[in-house]
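Exam revision sheet. Question 4 asks you to relate a sequence to its structure. Input first:
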Amino acid sequence: MSFTGTFGNGSGLRYIHRKNLLQALADELPIDTIHFSCKIAAIETQTHDGSSPVIIHLGDGTLIKAKVLIGCDGVHSMVARWLGLSAPVKSGRSAGLGMAVFPEGHGLSHEVRQFIDVGLRAGYVPLNDKEIYWFLTCNSPPKGENLAGNPELLQKEVLDKYAKVLPPLLVDIIQKSDLSTLHWAPLMFRHPWNMLIGNLSKGNITVAGDAMHPMTPDLGQGGCSALEDAVVLGRHIGNSFIKNKRLVTTGDNNVGQAIDEYVKERKWRVTGLITGSYLSGWVQNGGSKWWMKFLRDVIFYRLFFGWILSIAKYDCGKLPSVSPAKPDKQSKLD
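Answer key, structure tokens:
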């Protein structure tokens, strides 16, 4: 199956090398903004002189005092646990992925291709002329979750178990994988109703990305929805900052209200994405019974697949901008 062109409302599949995306985001930050290998050990809130700072205790003993804490710390988020969100649950499926490198070029067209078999879905995406990203999801891991820390065993197990059913080209791509890029993990998600009734924020503390809404990868919206979070949250906090001329953490129209508005705007959107991703994966990885084939091949792919992919077309709104100061009369005269 090939995914090319666009789907409903002009939306379509887009792909980018993760390294390039992270570099583009990092380039927009001031130097020394990012600190690596900083794990949160504890979170403490205080009220002092009318303000409500957040004290973040890091694993190495470092203390950080912040006006706002936005937890983007992944599926097993410490911030999400502090807020009281339920832990993510396993979907009953696992996924392997990696990147193959062809020094002389792979010669493939730049389109997404997917292969589906009973209980199995795999595919590849050429990232450029020499690198190809591949993925494989199945109803159970080849030999337990211990594959995550052993890339050579992971590659061997995937090939031993699935080479006979996968297209030869995909087998060749897996064989040429850079072992350092291989990864295997159970697919997890947070129950969608926890998005609607759970505590997604408390005062000036909230979560975004996988920390808020871990989902299965079947709609390809995990990273995209995290970027949506950033735009929506930035819009609300930015408007609050402009209105108050500073980042106010107490009183009326404070950053806590901006965060509440962010949560209200995002929770219905991510609830739908979590639900749609799970159901999409369940249908595509379904069994071989006649009713499941009918549900997958006739109803899902022919009637709903294009509409589901159009979910990706979403307007996050525009980030606020500050107009440059107007020159005074003397400047005009000069």
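Marking note for examiners. The domain at 35-88+190-312 is CATH 3.50.50.60 (FAD/NAD(P)-binding domain).
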